[in-house]
Amino acid sequence: MTTLTASPTKALERIRPDVRAMHAYVVQSSVGYLKMDAMENPFSLPASLQQELGQRLGALALNRYPGERMNDLKAALATYAGAPEGSAILLGNGSDEIISLLALACAQPHAGGRAKMIAPMPGFVMYPMSAQLQGLDFVNVSLTADFELDEPAMLAAIAEHQPVITYLAYPNNPTATLWDEGAVQRIIDAVGAQGGFVVMDEAYQPFASRSWITRMRAEPERNGHVLLMRTLSKFGLAGVRLGYLIGPAAIVSEIDKVRPPYNVSVLNCEAAIFALEHADVFAAQAAELCAERAKLVAQLRHMSGVEKVWDSEANMVLIRVTDAAKIFAGMKARKVLIKNVSTMHPLLANCLRLTVGNAADNAQMLAALEASI
């Protein structure tokens, strides 16, 4: 009798070569560290709300698939965001899933080749990753040296590549920049003229001075191809994994066709509804973080060894130092985790990204930074 021997190596060869060549998204272990690398809300729910939420979650029918509460959540999000008339909402397991769904829905041959996706870079790593995994060509348009939109370069790329999806992060990650409103609208107009979508990624909206939803309500026809993407992660629910997309109902209903059924759990849904019922608590937390952000930026600008500090419209601050790798390692040795973004893009050379925390967290982070410099 012949014994067949399995070959893991041959099985691995069945996985796409580009996937095997990729690097996995690694989350640093944060046990025993001050975690200032992921733009998380440092505040926990007040004890009374924890108890109330626990009772709500404990009473859910976990033996049933998600149902009508999803519609309740969509209605609550539409009210909270001030969704334009005639719009619909798509729910995702975080914004990451929505980015993947958009790419999946739009991945088709276009203008004699593969569909194109455009985004200014440096930007969110999930844009090019979603393009690669779903079979779109990603077109990187570099920001200016000071991380502003290069409007002529963006307009030229749109004219040349006719992208099906153009991402504009508003504010941008990792630079925390809120780009000029006029430049953004002209880019949106250019995309609309050649027949594509613009996705305004407003993950950091709770900390920004303006939102594109205002323009969507003011000029609905001009922005009729704009989809607004947000998440409750920076709102204060990073662990809940709830993202949402707002756009014209006709467009959203088509994208919704590629969404996995029951992609948002009843637990996530109920926690999100509960948080929106107490939006004032989270708004107060965001206001406190904005006040601490101003103090943090001022202190960083007076710190020897910090070469540049960029203005921020998010709950993060980008700085340039003399030796990012050395300072990152020094801060980690002092039990403070930040994000070394210096290798993500040439424009980010020797740059570090710091999360804005509460006063105590910021003080500890600054002390570790100063000692590491």
What do you see in this structure?
This protein has 373 residues and is an alpha/beta fold. 43% of the residues lie in helices and 17% in strands. It is built from 15 helices and 15 strands. The strands form four sheets. It has a seven-stranded mixed beta sheet, sandwiched between helices. It has a four-stranded antiparallel beta sheet with strand order 11-12-15-14, covered by helices on one side. It has a two-stranded parallel sheet with strand order 1-13. A hairpin with a 2-residue loop joins strand 3 (109-110) and strand 4. The protein is globular, with a radius of gyration of 22 Å. The chain starts with 7 loop residues before the first helix and ends with a helix. The mean pLDDT is 95.
Keywords summarizing the entry:
7-stranded mixed β-sheet; globular; 373 residues; 15 strands; 43% helix; 17% strand; alpha/beta
The Rg value, from CA coordinates, equals: 22 Å
Structural class: alpha/beta
**Strands ordered across the widest β-sheet:** 2-10-9-8-7-5-6
Number of strands: 15
Most strands sheet: 7 strands, mixed
Shape field: globular
Tally of contiguous helical segments: 15
What's the average pLDDT?
A: 95
Q: How do the SSEs run, as a string of H and E?
A: HHEHHEHEEEHEHEHEHEHEHHHEEHEEEH
Low-confidence stretches: none
N-to-C CA distance: 68 Å
Fraction of residues in helix: 40-55%
How large a portion of the residues is in β-strands, by DSSP E? 15-25%
